[in-house]
Design goal:
nine-stranded mixed sheet; single chain; Dihydrodipicolinate Reductase, domain 2; 35% helix; six-stranded parallel sheet
Length: 334
């Protein structure tokens, strides 16, 4: 295979996450190129293509999927459209990077994964933070025993955009709400760091009639093996926070900016053990670029994805249970 070959991407939609983060990340990566973008508004697609230096613009998602030169698609569409367009992309023979959360339910996620398996294409969920080397470093610290046995994890992700009229995050039927938008990060991180699935979840949510009754705030407890409790809170109507703490029997890991990382800013974290607190230096990289290169290596070089579609299905199972717990005000066993 040509070693100079790059994975050719098509972008289904011009969401801000695509324009501001994922497309630039792919363009700055080693093994990818953004070849086309589609929008239901052709003029919008052309403007975005010109703005970001993308060669081809399409006025429909269908037209992009018919382009045989496209290897993979990125789906940044609202959550309720993930299943439909992932399946249609799979049927068109495209590999898929789908924005988180993968779907609205575990069943939808399973259908997406099955469609990709049937079509022989890859499916990855766009949790970019997992590709940053600092999470490997955090896992190395845990595995080393430096902080002892894990006793608990707490993470936060909050911001206040409650005045953003018409925001897709405020549409209940579209999979809006804080849990699906940002709480999914805390769930994903806990599963990653502990290497297991929770056995039960309990969540209390603040559902706002002003925002189509989506959860604008959610605080949760995930129950894991060995009596480990993971607590988290997520909010779209609170002051900004974005942290993660791993509490051990002999020490603590603190991650000040847990899920947001910029290449030109420090992503260092801190370890306290033996009465001393040290700063762990982390490489300054673009985790969106690394996410794209992971897909490219899997497609072009036959390597395994770092995180298989089964992981995304498992995360969706927990996330769906968390929303149900908040709605029903009850503990849900998994």
């Amino acid at each position: 295979m040509n070693s100079d070959r790059k994975l050719r991407w098509g972008i289904l939609g011009s969401a801000s996450i695509a324009k501001g983060s994922v497309i630039p990340g792919l363009q700055q990566s080693e093994l990818n190129e953004v070849a086309a973008i589609a929008s239901r508004d052709e003029e919008k697609a052309k403007q975005t293509a010109e703005q970001l230096g993308i060669p081809q613009a399409y006025g429909s998602y269908e037209a992009l999927l018919e382009d045989d030169s496209i290897d993979a698609v990125y789906i940044p569409l609202p959550n309720h459209l993930h299943r439909e367009w992932a399946i249609r992309a799979a049927e068109a023979g495209k590999h898929i990077l789908c924005e988180k959360p993968l779907a609205l339910t575990e069943q939808e996620a399973r259908e997406m994964a099955q469609a990709c398996d049937d079509a022989g294409v890859l499916l990855a969920e766009a949790f970019m933070y997992r590709h940053h080397p600092r999470y490997d470093q955090i896992r190395d610290v845990i595995a080393s025993g430096e902080i002892g046995e894990i006793r608990g994890i707490h993470s936060t992700f909050s911001f206040n955009n409650s005045g953003s009229a018409g925001n897709v995050r405020f549409k209940r039927e579209w999979g809006g709400g804080a849990l699906y938008d940002i709480g999914c990060y805390s769930i994903s991180a806990a599963r990653l760091l502990l290497g297991q699935e929770p056995s039960a979840v309990t969540v209390i949510g603040m559902f706002s009639p002003e925002h189509d009754n989506v959860d604008m705030m959610a605080s949760g407890l995930l129950e894991f093996n060995d009596h480990v409790g993971v607590t988290f809170d997520s909010s779209m109507w609170a002051a900004f926070r974005n942290t993660l703490e791993v509490l051990g029997s002999d020490g603590i890991i603190e991650v000040p900016s847990a899920f947001i990382s910029k290449p030109d800013r420090s992503s260092n974290f801190y370890v306290t053990a033996g009465g001393e607190r040290r700063e762990v230096e982390v490489p300054q990289v673009n985790h969106y670029s690394l996410q794209g290169d992971d897909m490219a290596r899997a497609v072009l070089q036959g390597k395994d994805l770092r995180f298989a579609s089964s992981d995304a299905v498992a995360n969706m199972k927990v996330l769906e249970a968390c929303l149900r717990s908040a709605e029903e005000r009850t503990r849900i066993t998994l």
